Each structure stands twice: as structure tokens, then as C-alpha cells.
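Reading a protein record of the kind used here takes only a little practice. An example makes this concrete, so a full record is given next.
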Amino acid sequence: HDIICISESKLCNTDSVQINGFTTFYKNRQKYDRKSGGLLVLIRNYLVEYVTIHEEEELKPVIDESVIDRYVFSNFPLSKKALYFSLDEGIIGKKVLFGAVYIEDQSSRYFNRNSYEELEETLLHLNFQHVCLLGDFNSRTGNISDILLRDRHNDAQVDFLDFEKGPRVSKDVTTNQMGNELIRFLQTSQMAIVNGRCGRDA
């Protein structure tokens, strides 16, 4: 693998992860009783020059000086539930924004009911045409449709017919409140779930 995203890295700002051949980027939980949560992204060294990390200005003091040249800082309050990085167009033929995501379970003291609203606001601010979010969402969607069917009663721009694999089929048929929030977020953002459509999950 050339890019590895890890949820619940459980690191603090003084920790360091060194893996031969990779450059590491962190988004650690800033307030905690014990190490928990957090995101870690490892990128092959040959790809680092094509990667831009998008982060809030207020976190600039805790960024490792050895990689700070890969960062673009914003005064906009980006969602703290993801580590955002973009890959230059020359690598995969289009410029893509990735978000390594960790949303806590509803039983966690760090749970934020507005996580998807904040993600949506962040994506609108960063303004990329192509977006891929991956990680641990703790959101169970069962087989609820994540795509609005295109018809004369709505202005959806995405339909099942736009996917070669057609409708999504989930092995997990359970739903929860955050799963419903995820579905709403996807439909509003015109995004779709890959799990259950592609690869071994299909």
C-alpha cells in the first residue's frame, strides 16, 4: 500500500511513529484524560511531494516541522473528525481530496452529534470536485439507500444508474441514529458508499 489511514491512533503530540519508506502525518486528540482517538496517515516517501495536508491555523504549533511544508492552513474551523489531504492530479488523473475519518461511538464522552454537519461545512469550504472519505464512522446504515433516485420531484444529480455495480448491499442490516445522519450527509453531498458495491464487499 502507498497510503495507509489509521483511525484511533491513540497518540499525543510528543509521540512519533517511524516506518521505513513512509512519511507520517498526525491529527491527535488535543484534550483527553488518557490517550485516545486520533488519526494517523502514512504516505510513501515518493508520493509526499504530490500531497497537500489541509489543516486549521490553530493547530499549526503542534505540526512536526519536518513536514510542515506539506501543509496548507486555513482560518476556517475544519471538522476535527478527519485528517484532510489532497493528491495532485498527475498521480491518479484527477485532483482528489481524501479525509481519514474517525467519528466516536454514541456512547463515547467525545461523541459529537453534529459531526456530519461539520464535515459537510468543511467539504464546502475546501471545495473539491472529487472527494473520498474513509475510516471509522461508527454509523450503521443497514440497507438504507444512500443515493436519491433521480426523478421529476427532486434535483438529485446522482442515481444508481451512475454506478456500474448498481444498488448497495450491506451484510450489516442494523441501523442507528448516526447511520441515518450519514445517509442524510451522503445524499446532501451527492456522495455514495463504496462498501457493498465494489471489491470483495460487493
Residues 177-189 form the longest helix (13 residues). Residues 168 and 194 are 8 Å apart (CA to CA).
